[in-house]
Design goal:
There is one protein chain. With about 550 residues, the chain is of the alpha/beta class. It folds into three domains: about 5-220 and about 235-255, no CATH class; about 275-315 and about 520-555, no CATH class; about 320-515, von Willebrand factor, type A domain (Rossmann fold), CATH 3.40.50.410. About 15% of the residues lie in helices and about 35% in strands. It is built from eight helices and 33 strands. Helix 3 runs antiparallel to helix 4 (about 375-385) and helix 3 packs parallel to helix 8 (about 505-515). The longest helix has 17 residues, at about 475-490. The radius of gyration is 25 Å and the shape is globular. It starts with 5 loop residues before the first strand and ends with a strand.
Length: about 550
């Protein structure tokens, strides 16, 4: 769990002055502890230019422009929410624009359509459920994924260096450029070299359209007239890629609005600087079985004894990004088939909607497979794993999993790292060879700040020490204890695997536990960043229920 460096939350919306369909126009500078109000929400990208947009309540439209900052406009259609579900937060690694479903309740008829203008250097990731996605212009990288919405990618230069991969599981893909017309295909790929800008498009039940040779220049933000919802007799704005079902959801006529609503001092949106996110698994105290079907109202969060209002909630059924980290050094290299078979069991046990990445390591971490839901591809890549050479660099491999393996997805949806090792990093005194570049304390601190969950599986490789040249018993013990501490710091569970033949069963228990994890977020009432420890306790109101997760954070 990580305390967010910067976060922008839209809340306390004016309830008496706005109609059921209205346009919220806000802007602020993302400078710590200060903000200003203007017409659009304005945010600065982090140093790595990563932007993640997640909207489970409507459409997302992204347009590349020449300004250095990101501009966000939200159009709300349907009922008037008690508080806005739009949250913008920024860390050193990610600018995140989120429409939180928990803010208004899952049964709410509220529809939220987002429109963003982004610089060309932006690495964009977009996630929707049924909402359409439209992207105009070419960002530095683009990933768009929707369950049933349509995706439209419009770009001006069809000869631009783009590495495109598009997949429509049920719908079809159409490609129209000056030199290529292809329609009705289930998948499309176009590779323009290793330096091409990556474009990954995926829709489970919608259509995907790629239109090249179209002028997409965006000289500036849309005018007030362009941002105004349509008159009463028209449907509210939707992207061309929405389905009939989605249009009916958003079909409540929008009331006429000739100009943006003026926001007076009493309507100022409060800008907090921190969001705390917790991932907790919930089990029955008597049976140790996971409890499913819990709602936000079943949880209470306390920080240093003071109850904190929950602002965002994701149920245990929400999908995960799972990163499997496998130690191939030392004695494990003689058991490669067991390790491959156990990894395959992990893949087969995970839920179909969970994305899985696989990393192996000895002297160097290797990304065997990036995050994917393609189980056949995972089987092929895992079966192709070979023995690794080099010394054990466990801490560097964990750092690789939290940074390189997840760099193109941000902290996508919820993330869990599952690491298998004997814990014998080469930095331990009697372990031979080069150790990790990072120290144990450095990786432990990094895991404490990690937004996801870390599970560790310790494999017993101890043997009788016959000389001072052998790994000594105290370092085997240290490897065991550090693997346990890594899991505790990461809010996950620690498993002891006495022999590799038991590894597959341990993986299946990890998957079962991940299926009981709920995600909760809150704004701490104590927002003083004094570097002190903040103790967190999560209470579940159901009888015999107990929540497990991270126990706190340092308010840096």
């Amino acid at each position: 769990m990580k305390a967010m460096d910067e976060k922008r939350a839209l809340s306390n919306l004016p309830s008496g002055r706005l109609r059921p369909s209205w346009l919220l126009l806000l802007s602020f500078l993302m400078v710590p502890f200060s903000y200003s109000l203007a017409q659009d929400m304005r945010a600065d990208l982090p140093a790595n230019n990563s932007l993640r947009v997640e909207n489970r309540r409507g459409d997302v439209r992204v347009e590349v422009w020449n300004e250095p900052h990101v501009s966000v406009t939200a159009v709300f259609v349907g009922e008037t929410p008690q508080s806005s579900p739009v949250i913008i937060r920024r860390t050193e690694q990610l600018l995140n624009v989120l429409v939180a479903s928990g803010a208004t309740g899952p049964a709410s008829s509220l529809r939220v359509n987002l429109s963003l203008h982004v610089p060309a250097r932006t690495r964009v990731e977009i996630l929707t459920n049924g909402g359409g996605v439209e992207v105009l212009g070419i960002p530095a990288a683009l990933t768009a994924q929707t369950q049933s919405g349509n995706i439209k990618f419009i770009f001006s230069d069809p000869a631009a260096g783009l590495n495109i991969s598009a997949k429509a599981s049920v719908g079809k893909i159409s490609v129209v450029t000056p030199d290529l017309v292809r329609k009705g295909v289930p998948a499309f790929e176009s590779v323009r070299g290793k330096d091409g800008k990556p474009v990954r498009l995926s829709s489970e039940r919608g259509r995907i359209s790629l239109l090249g040779g179209v002028d997409t220049r965006a000289p500036g933000p849309p005018s007030a007239e362009e941002r105004t919802p349509p008159p009463l007799e028209q449907k509210p704005p939707t992207l061309g890629g929405t389905t009939d079902e989605q249009q009916s959801v958003a079909g409540t006529p929008a009331a006429p609005l000739t100009a943006p609503e003026e926001i007076d001092e009493g309507d100022v949106i409060r800008v907090d600087t921190e969001l705390v996110t917790l991932n907790v698994s919930v089990v029955d105290r008597a049976t140790s079985r996971g409890l499913l079907g819990l709602a936000q109202s079943d949880f209470k969060i306390f920080e240093d004894g003071a109850e904190q209002p929950i602002t965002h909630f994701e149920s245990a059924s929400a999908p995960f990004n799972l990163v499997l980290v496998i130690d191939l050094s030392g004695s494990t290299k003689d058991k490669l088939k067991l390790i491959r078979d156990a990894a395959l069991r992990f893949v087969d046990a995970a839920r179909p909607e969970d994305s899985i990445a696989v990393i192996t390591f000895a002297g160097t971490a290797v990304l065997v497979s990036p995050l994917t839901t393609d189980r056949e591809a995972l089987h092929r890549r895992i079966n192709a794993i070979e023995s690794a050479q080099g010394d054990t660099k466990l801490y560097d491999a964990l750092n690789f999993a939290m940074t390189d393996a997840l760099k193109d997805v941000g902290t996508s949806r919820r993330t869990a790292i599952v690491v298998m090792s004997d814990g014998l990093d080469g930095t331990l005194p009697s372990v031979h060879g080069d150790g990790s570049r990072l120290s144990y304390n450095e990786i432990l601190s990094q895991i404490r700040e990690f937004d996801g969950v870390v599970y560790s599986l310790w494999v017993d490789t101890e043997y009788e020490s016959l000389s001072e040249q052998d790994t000594q018993p105290e370092d085997f013990d240290a490897g065991h204890d550090r693997m346990a501490e890594l899991a505790e710091a990461g809010g996950g569970l620690f498993y002891e695997v006495d022999k590799l033949e038991d590894l597959a069963g341990a993986y299946e228990r990890v998957v079962a536990d991940i299926g009981t994890v709920y995600s909760l977020s809150y704004h701490p009432s104590n927002n003083v960043r004094d570097g002190k420890w903040r103790a967190i306790r999560v209470r579940v109101t159901r009888p015999n229920a107990v929540a497990r997760g991270k126990s706190g954070y340092y308010a840096k």
